[in-house]
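Q: Given only this backbone (230 positions), what sequence would you predict?
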């Protein structure tokens, strides 16, 4: 498998996470110090709010770009050995993670959240049960709205490929939710979009390549028109 990664973007966002985390600590410290002086009490509240916001930005960038293994590294490792007919694109297209090969075109959407992940058929949405409430509020461990992200990612991937790939009818872009946390328990068999633990990703892609393949010529034509430099 060929892997094309935007290392410049990763390094840039890693630094943003580091700098915002340091800045948040400094501002929080200033706010705490100011709170001891009645004259500056209003400024202390401003500093504490600003520091909290910056800390959340730092946590977001740190989780996604600063910690190793990062989401892109986990996906690469999970698909290692899938075969040289596949290309995995990290942050080089309009979506974060794109896989192109005999199994078709897949946009991989990783989630690091733990707990029990269920699919509510009636409301057509994913829900997270269990987990630490404190971490959900302050450490961005809440699942959010995957169904909304799926729609956004599909739109971005489809529009990007329509612009970049010419001369043929493109296979449909397919989304897949990949849960990287080993403590995540998935109960999503009835979901409209595949959702699976990362250790089953390679097996799933191989199965789809056997059951619903696209021609090698089409896959290679798409790959040739997408970025090929790391």
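A: Predicted residues:
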């Amino acid at each position: 498998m060929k892997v094309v990664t935007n290392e410049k973007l990763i390094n840039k966002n890693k630094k943003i996470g580091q700098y915002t985390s340091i800045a948040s600590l400094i501002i929080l410290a200033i706010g705490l110090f100011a709170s001891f002086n009645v004259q500056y009490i209003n400024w202390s509240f401003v500093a504490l709010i600003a520091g909290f916001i910056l800390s959340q930005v730092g946590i977001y960038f740190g989780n996604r770009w600063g910690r190793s293994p990062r989401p892109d590294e986990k996906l690469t490792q999970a698909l290692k050995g899938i075969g040289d007919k596949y290309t995995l694109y990290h942050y080089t297209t309009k979506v974060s993670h794109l896989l192109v090969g005999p199994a078709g075109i897949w946009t991989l959407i990783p989630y690091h959240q733990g707990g029990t992940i269920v699919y509510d058929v009636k409301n057509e949405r994913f829900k997270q049960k269990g987990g630490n409430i404190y971490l959900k509020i302050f450490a961005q461990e809440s699942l959010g709205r995957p169904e909304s992200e799926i729609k956004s990612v599909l739109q971005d991937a489809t529009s990007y490929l329509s612009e970049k790939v010419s001369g043929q009818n493109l296979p449909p872009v397919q989304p897949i939710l990949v849960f990287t946390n080993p403590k995540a328990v998935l109960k999503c068999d009835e979901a409209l979009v595949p959702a699976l633990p990362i250790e089953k990703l390679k097996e799933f892609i191989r199965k789809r390549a056997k059951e619903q393949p696209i021609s090698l010529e089409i896959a290679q034509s798409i790959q040739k028109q997408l970025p090929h430099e790391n």
